[in-house]
Write a structure and sequence with these properties.
Strand content: 5-15%
Oligomer: single chain
CATH architecture of the largest domain: 3-Layer(aba) Sandwich
Helix content: 40-55%
Distance between the termini: 11 Å
Strand order of the largest sheet: 2-1-7-8
Order of helices and strands: EHHHHHEHHEHEEHEHHHEHEH
Protein backbone atom coordinates (compact mmCIF):
# COMPACT_ATOMS: atom_id res chain seq x y z
CA UNK A 1 0.00 0.00 0.00
CA UNK A 2 1.04 3.60 -0.54
CA UNK A 3 0.95 5.34 2.83
CA UNK A 4 -0.26 8.90 2.41
CA UNK A 5 -1.55 9.87 5.86
CA UNK A 6 0.05 7.84 8.67
CA UNK A 7 -0.12 8.31 12.41
CA UNK A 8 3.16 8.03 14.29
CA UNK A 9 2.91 6.13 17.59
CA UNK A 10 5.95 6.50 19.86
CA UNK A 11 6.84 3.78 22.40
CA UNK A 12 7.73 4.50 26.00
CA UNK A 13 10.20 3.48 28.66
CA UNK A 14 10.82 -0.25 28.59
CA UNK A 15 11.29 -0.35 24.80
CA UNK A 16 15.02 0.40 25.12
CA UNK A 17 17.78 -1.94 24.04
CA UNK A 18 21.52 -1.62 23.54
CA UNK A 19 22.49 -0.03 20.18
CA UNK A 20 18.94 1.13 19.39
CA UNK A 21 18.81 3.92 16.79
CA UNK A 22 22.53 3.77 15.98
CA UNK A 23 21.67 2.23 12.62
CA UNK A 24 19.53 5.29 11.92
CA UNK A 25 22.43 7.54 12.89
CA UNK A 26 24.60 5.71 10.34
CA UNK A 27 21.99 5.72 7.59
CA UNK A 28 20.45 9.13 8.19
CA UNK A 29 21.26 12.49 6.74
CA UNK A 30 22.09 15.86 8.20
CA UNK A 31 18.87 16.23 10.21
CA UNK A 32 19.39 12.92 12.00
CA UNK A 33 22.99 13.81 12.81
CA UNK A 34 21.93 17.22 14.14
CA UNK A 35 19.39 15.51 16.39
CA UNK A 36 22.03 13.25 17.97
CA UNK A 37 24.36 16.22 18.44
CA UNK A 38 21.59 18.22 20.11
CA UNK A 39 20.73 15.37 22.46
CA UNK A 40 24.37 14.97 23.47
CA UNK A 41 24.72 18.71 24.06
CA UNK A 42 21.60 19.00 26.24
CA UNK A 43 22.30 15.79 28.16
CA UNK A 44 25.96 16.68 28.67
CA UNK A 45 27.13 13.26 27.53
CA UNK A 46 27.88 11.37 24.33
CA UNK A 47 24.47 9.82 23.66
CA UNK A 48 25.57 7.45 20.85
CA UNK A 49 28.32 6.13 23.14
CA UNK A 50 25.83 5.70 25.98
CA UNK A 51 23.42 3.76 23.78
CA UNK A 52 26.27 1.62 22.46
CA UNK A 53 28.06 0.92 25.74
CA UNK A 54 25.42 0.86 28.49
CA UNK A 55 24.35 -2.58 29.65
CA UNK A 56 20.73 -3.60 30.06
CA UNK A 57 20.54 -2.74 33.76
CA UNK A 58 21.93 0.74 33.18
CA UNK A 59 19.51 1.35 30.33
CA UNK A 60 16.58 0.47 32.63
CA UNK A 61 17.26 3.47 34.86
CA UNK A 62 14.68 6.18 34.27
CA UNK A 63 17.33 8.91 34.13
CA UNK A 64 19.11 6.96 31.37
CA UNK A 65 16.28 5.29 29.46
CA UNK A 66 14.00 8.31 29.18
CA UNK A 67 16.45 10.50 27.21
CA UNK A 68 17.74 7.49 25.26
CA UNK A 69 14.31 6.21 24.21
CA UNK A 70 13.19 9.74 23.34
CA UNK A 71 16.26 10.14 21.12
CA UNK A 72 15.54 6.80 19.43
CA UNK A 73 11.90 7.80 18.86
CA UNK A 74 12.78 11.17 17.39
CA UNK A 75 15.57 9.66 15.27
CA UNK A 76 13.04 7.35 13.64
CA UNK A 77 10.64 10.24 13.03
CA UNK A 78 13.36 12.45 11.56
CA UNK A 79 14.66 9.66 9.32
CA UNK A 80 11.12 9.02 8.08
CA UNK A 81 10.89 12.72 7.29
CA UNK A 82 14.16 12.57 5.37
CA UNK A 83 12.56 9.80 3.30
CA UNK A 84 9.47 11.92 2.63
CA UNK A 85 7.15 10.24 5.16
CA UNK A 86 5.44 12.72 7.49
CA UNK A 87 2.64 12.12 9.99
CA UNK A 88 -0.96 13.20 9.79
CA UNK A 89 -1.30 12.63 13.54
CA UNK A 90 0.80 11.41 16.45
CA UNK A 91 0.58 9.95 19.92
CA UNK A 92 3.00 8.41 22.39
CA UNK A 93 2.76 5.80 25.11
CA UNK A 94 3.78 7.35 28.44
CA UNK A 95 7.31 8.73 27.85
CA UNK A 96 6.58 8.46 24.11
CA UNK A 97 4.37 11.53 24.42
CA UNK A 98 7.48 13.73 24.46
CA UNK A 99 8.49 12.64 20.96
CA UNK A 100 4.87 13.24 19.94
CA UNK A 101 5.02 16.76 21.40
CA UNK A 102 8.03 17.53 19.21
CA UNK A 103 6.56 15.90 16.11
CA UNK A 104 3.30 17.84 16.47
CA UNK A 105 5.18 21.14 16.86
CA UNK A 106 4.23 21.74 20.51
CA UNK A 107 7.84 21.85 21.76
CA UNK A 108 11.21 21.95 20.03
CA UNK A 109 13.93 19.32 20.33
CA UNK A 110 16.04 21.21 22.84
CA UNK A 111 13.05 21.73 25.14
CA UNK A 112 12.15 18.07 24.79
CA UNK A 113 15.55 16.81 25.92
CA UNK A 114 15.64 19.26 28.82
CA UNK A 115 12.22 18.02 29.92
CA UNK A 116 12.93 14.31 29.64
CA UNK A 117 16.26 14.81 31.44
CA UNK A 118 14.40 16.40 34.38
CA UNK A 119 11.49 13.94 34.20
CA UNK A 120 13.80 10.93 34.12
CA UNK A 121 15.76 12.20 37.12
CA UNK A 122 12.60 12.96 39.11
CA UNK A 123 11.18 9.52 38.42
CA UNK A 124 14.49 7.75 39.16
CA UNK A 125 14.77 9.67 42.44
CA UNK A 126 11.25 8.51 43.32
CA UNK A 127 12.17 4.92 42.45
CA UNK A 128 15.35 5.15 44.54
CA UNK A 129 13.29 6.20 47.55
CA UNK A 130 11.29 2.98 47.17
CA UNK A 131 14.38 0.82 46.92
CA UNK A 132 14.51 -1.46 49.93
CA UNK A 133 13.84 -5.01 49.00
CA UNK A 134 11.72 -6.35 46.17
CA UNK A 135 9.31 -7.89 48.67
CA UNK A 136 8.56 -4.54 50.31
CA UNK A 137 8.84 -2.10 47.41
CA UNK A 138 5.81 -0.67 45.63
CA UNK A 139 5.57 -1.62 41.98
CA UNK A 140 3.33 -2.64 39.10
CA UNK A 141 1.56 -5.78 37.93
CA UNK A 142 -0.13 -6.77 34.68
CA UNK A 143 -3.65 -8.14 34.97
CA UNK A 144 -4.33 -10.45 32.02
CA UNK A 145 -7.81 -11.51 30.97
CA UNK A 146 -10.05 -8.80 32.44
CA UNK A 147 -11.35 -5.82 30.48
CA UNK A 148 -10.41 -2.30 31.58
CA UNK A 149 -13.88 -1.36 32.80
CA UNK A 150 -14.02 -4.38 35.10
CA UNK A 151 -10.57 -3.69 36.51
CA UNK A 152 -11.51 -0.09 37.28
CA UNK A 153 -14.80 -1.16 38.86
CA UNK A 154 -13.07 -3.76 41.02
CA UNK A 155 -10.43 -1.30 42.22
CA UNK A 156 -13.15 1.24 43.12
CA UNK A 157 -15.18 -1.38 45.00
CA UNK A 158 -12.17 -2.72 46.88
CA UNK A 159 -11.14 0.80 47.83
CA UNK A 160 -14.46 1.39 49.58
CA UNK A 161 -13.84 -1.88 51.40
CA UNK A 162 -10.45 -0.73 52.66
CA UNK A 163 -7.96 -1.96 50.04
CA UNK A 164 -6.05 1.27 49.50
CA UNK A 165 -2.96 2.16 47.47
CA UNK A 166 -3.99 0.21 44.35
CA UNK A 167 -4.41 2.11 41.07
CA UNK A 168 -5.08 1.44 37.40
CA UNK A 169 -1.90 2.60 35.63
CA UNK A 170 -1.84 1.46 31.99
CA UNK A 171 -5.02 0.50 30.15
CA UNK A 172 -3.18 -1.30 27.38
CA UNK A 173 -5.82 -3.42 25.62
CA UNK A 174 -9.20 -5.06 26.07
CA UNK A 175 -7.53 -7.89 27.98
CA UNK A 176 -4.49 -6.28 29.64
CA UNK A 177 -4.39 -3.66 32.37
CA UNK A 178 -1.34 -2.73 34.42
CA UNK A 179 -1.93 -1.68 38.02
CA UNK A 180 0.35 0.17 40.43
CA UNK A 181 0.40 -0.22 44.17
CA UNK A 182 2.20 -0.89 47.40
CA UNK A 183 3.63 -4.38 47.88
CA UNK A 184 0.81 -5.25 50.27
CA UNK A 185 -1.90 -3.96 47.95
CA UNK A 186 -0.47 -5.79 44.94
CA UNK A 187 -0.21 -9.03 46.90
CA UNK A 188 -3.84 -8.87 48.02
CA UNK A 189 -5.03 -7.71 44.58
CA UNK A 190 -3.38 -10.65 42.84
CA UNK A 191 -5.61 -13.08 44.72
CA UNK A 192 -8.71 -10.96 44.20
CA UNK A 193 -8.15 -10.41 40.47
CA UNK A 194 -7.74 -14.16 39.93
CA UNK A 195 -10.93 -14.83 41.87
CA UNK A 196 -12.65 -12.27 39.60
CA UNK A 197 -11.60 -14.18 36.47
CA UNK A 198 -8.14 -12.91 35.54
CA UNK A 199 -6.08 -15.56 33.73
CA UNK A 200 -2.83 -14.27 35.16
CA UNK A 201 -1.44 -11.48 37.32
CA UNK A 202 2.24 -10.83 36.58
CA UNK A 203 4.43 -8.62 38.76
CA UNK A 204 6.51 -6.37 36.49
CA UNK A 205 10.22 -5.71 36.88
CA UNK A 206 9.96 -1.93 37.09
CA UNK A 207 11.54 0.63 39.39
CA UNK A 208 8.38 1.99 40.96
CA UNK A 209 4.58 2.38 40.96
CA UNK A 210 4.45 4.67 37.93
CA UNK A 211 1.32 6.47 36.71
CA UNK A 212 -0.11 6.55 40.21
CA UNK A 213 -0.36 9.00 43.12
CA UNK A 214 2.34 6.98 44.87
CA UNK A 215 4.96 8.92 42.86
CA UNK A 216 3.47 12.36 43.45
CA UNK A 217 6.93 13.46 44.58
CA UNK A 218 8.22 13.04 41.05
CA UNK A 219 5.49 15.31 39.70
CA UNK A 220 6.30 17.91 42.34
CA UNK A 221 9.99 17.87 41.41
CA UNK A 222 9.29 17.99 37.66
CA UNK A 223 6.57 20.65 37.83
CA UNK A 224 8.75 23.79 37.95
CA UNK A 225 10.87 22.64 35.00
CA UNK A 226 7.76 21.91 32.96
CA UNK A 227 6.14 25.23 33.92
CA UNK A 228 9.11 27.16 32.51
CA UNK A 229 8.93 25.47 29.09
CA UNK A 230 7.21 27.02 26.09
CA UNK A 231 4.36 24.93 24.65
CA UNK A 232 2.71 25.87 21.34
CA UNK A 233 -0.59 24.66 19.92
CA UNK A 234 -0.33 21.37 17.99
CA UNK A 235 0.25 21.76 14.25
CA UNK A 236 -1.17 18.27 13.58
CA UNK A 237 -3.58 16.14 15.63
CA UNK A 238 -1.98 15.10 18.94
CA UNK A 239 -3.52 12.68 21.43
CA UNK A 240 -3.24 12.39 25.21
CA UNK A 241 -2.66 9.44 27.53
CA UNK A 242 -4.56 11.15 30.34
CA UNK A 243 -7.76 11.99 28.45
CA UNK A 244 -7.52 9.35 25.73
CA UNK A 245 -8.57 12.08 23.29
CA UNK A 246 -7.22 14.85 21.12
CA UNK A 247 -5.23 17.71 22.67
CA UNK A 248 -6.71 21.12 21.87
CA UNK A 249 -3.92 23.55 22.75
CA UNK A 250 -0.38 23.94 24.01
CA UNK A 251 -1.67 24.98 27.43
CA UNK A 252 -3.69 21.78 27.63
CA UNK A 253 -0.69 19.73 26.51
CA UNK A 254 1.44 21.22 29.29
CA UNK A 255 -1.18 20.54 31.97
CA UNK A 256 -1.62 16.97 30.76
CA UNK A 257 2.16 16.38 30.74
CA UNK A 258 2.26 16.98 34.49
CA UNK A 259 -0.86 14.96 35.24
CA UNK A 260 0.47 12.06 33.17
CA UNK A 261 3.09 11.21 35.80
CA UNK A 262 0.49 10.30 38.42
CA UNK A 263 -2.54 9.43 36.27
CA UNK A 264 -3.16 6.34 34.11
CA UNK A 265 -2.28 5.83 30.46
CA UNK A 266 -5.65 5.31 28.73
CA UNK A 267 -4.12 3.74 25.66
CA UNK A 268 -7.19 1.81 24.51
CA UNK A 269 -9.22 5.02 24.31
CA UNK A 270 -6.33 6.84 22.65
CA UNK A 271 -5.92 4.16 19.99
CA UNK A 272 -9.64 4.39 19.20
CA UNK A 273 -9.43 8.17 18.84
CA UNK A 274 -6.45 7.86 16.49
CA UNK A 275 -8.20 5.20 14.39
CA UNK A 276 -11.28 7.40 14.05
CA UNK A 277 -9.28 10.25 12.57
CA UNK A 278 -9.15 8.92 9.00
CA UNK A 279 -5.50 7.88 8.81
CA UNK A 280 -4.47 5.11 6.42
CA UNK A 281 -1.69 3.46 8.49
CA UNK A 282 -0.02 3.52 11.88
CA UNK A 283 3.76 3.43 12.28
CA UNK A 284 5.43 2.37 15.53
CA UNK A 285 8.08 5.06 15.36
CA UNK A 286 10.75 3.91 17.78
CA UNK A 287 12.29 0.79 19.30
CA UNK A 288 10.43 -2.47 19.83
CA UNK A 289 7.10 -3.91 18.75
CA UNK A 290 4.90 -3.49 21.82
CA UNK A 291 2.57 -0.92 20.27
CA UNK A 292 2.09 -3.07 17.16
CA UNK A 293 0.89 -5.85 19.42
CA UNK A 294 -1.52 -3.59 21.28
CA UNK A 295 -2.85 -2.15 17.99
CA UNK A 296 -4.07 -5.63 17.02
CA UNK A 297 -6.83 -5.28 19.61
CA UNK A 298 -8.23 -2.14 17.96
CA UNK A 299 -11.37 -2.81 15.92
CA UNK A 300 -10.07 -1.36 12.68
CA UNK A 301 -8.66 -2.43 9.33
CA UNK A 302 -5.94 0.24 9.55
CA UNK A 303 -2.58 -1.56 9.49
CA UNK A 304 0.29 -0.96 11.88
CA UNK A 305 3.89 -1.24 10.71
CA UNK A 306 7.31 -1.19 12.37
CA UNK A 307 9.30 1.99 11.80
CA UNK A 308 11.90 1.87 14.54
CA UNK A 309 15.03 0.85 12.65
CA UNK A 310 16.69 1.94 9.43
CA UNK A 311 15.77 -1.42 7.89
CA UNK A 312 12.11 -1.04 8.92
CA UNK A 313 11.93 2.42 7.36
CA UNK A 314 13.75 1.38 4.21
CA UNK A 315 11.30 -1.52 3.83
CA UNK A 316 8.38 0.92 4.06
CA UNK A 317 9.97 3.21 1.47
CA UNK A 318 10.58 0.20 -0.78
CA UNK A 319 6.92 -0.75 -0.61
CA UNK A 320 5.95 2.81 -1.50
CA UNK A 321 8.22 2.85 -4.55
CA UNK A 322 7.10 -0.58 -5.75
CA UNK A 323 3.43 0.33 -5.59
CA UNK A 324 3.92 3.67 -7.29
CA UNK A 325 5.90 2.06 -10.10
CA UNK A 326 3.26 -0.64 -10.49
CA UNK A 327 0.38 1.81 -10.56
Amino acid sequence: MVIKNPAFLFPGQGAQYQNMSLDILSAGGAEVKRLFALASEVMGRDMPALIRDADGETLKRSDISQPAVTLANLAAAVYLGEQGVRPGACAGFSLGEYAALVTSGVIDGETCFRLVKARGKAMQDAADRFAGGPAEAPGMAAVIGLDPEKVEALIARWKTGGLLDLYGANFNSRSQVVVSGTAAALGEAETRFKEAGARRVVRLQVAGPFHSPLIAGAAEAFGPVLAAAEFKDPAIPLFSNVSGGRVGSGAEAKALALRQITEPVRWTAEEGAVAALGIDAVLETGPGKVLQGLWKDVETTIPCFAAGTAADIETLIGWQLEEKQGA
